Amino acid sequence: MMGSYNVILRGKTVGSVQLSKQGLYYHLRCSCTVADQNIYRLLGSCEGDQIRFGVLVPEGNRLALETKIPSKKLSGEALEFWLESAAIHGQASAKREYHSKFIPIYPDEPFEYLSRLKKSYMEIRNGKPGITITD
């Protein structure tokens, strides 16, 4: 389970994921090069179960993500990683709009919804960046 894995976007390898074991967790480090300005989420599959790892953030001229995952979530042999474009510019799917709440992001204020970000999608509405949290 430890080692380096390719990250796929639209059928092409755009980066890699390094996994290392740390006690009851795996430390995941993802680094990708993507030409466009979209927001991307790292997803993976382990023995057929889909896992959302998080949104990549700019780091120099690359996009990166660093996180820890409980060992029990990666308890298989077949492990794959890919990027998915997050919904932006108000293009959230109808499914997301049905049970969702848009929260504008104000950089000057503390962000009180951090614990709910796993089920969120970044987008822009009326020219304001924010997140849509699904319930």
Descriptive notes:
It is a single chain. The protein has about 140 residues and is mostly beta strands. The protein folds into two domains: about 5-85, no CATH class; about 95-135, no CATH class. It is about 5% helix and about 55% strand. It has one helix spanning about 95-100; strands at about 5-10, 10-20, 25-30, 40-45, 50-55, 55-60, 60-70, 80-85, 100-105, 120-125, 130-135. The strands form two sheets. Strands 5-4-8-1-2-3-7-6 form an eight-stranded mixed beta sheet, with no helix packed on it. The N and C termini lie far apart (about 30 Å). Residues about 90-100 have low confidence and may be disordered.
Summary, kept brief:
The chain is mainly beta and 135 residues long. The protein has 1 helix and 11 strands; from the N terminus they run ββββββββαβββ. It has one helix at 94-98; strands at 3-9, 12-22, 25-32, 40-46, 49-55, 57-59, 62-70, 79-85, 100-104, 120-125, 128-134.
Mean pLDDT: 77
Globular, elongated, flat, extended or rod-shaped: what is the shape? Answer: globular
Radius of gyration: 16 Å
Amino- and carboxy-terminal Cα gap: 32 Å
The major pleated sheet works out as: 8 strands, mixed
The number of domains? 2
Helix-strand pattern: EEEEEEEEHEEE
Question: What is the helix fraction of residues, given as a range?
Answer: under 10%
The beta-strand count equals: 11
Topology:
Blueprint: E1 3-9, E2 12-22, E3 25-32, E4 40-46, E5 49-55, E6 57-59, E7 62-70, E8 79-85, H1 94-98, E9 100-104, E10 120-125, E11 128-134
Parallel strand pairs: 1-8
Antiparallel strand pairs: 1-2, 2-3, 3-7, 4-5, 4-8, 6-7, 9-11, 10-11
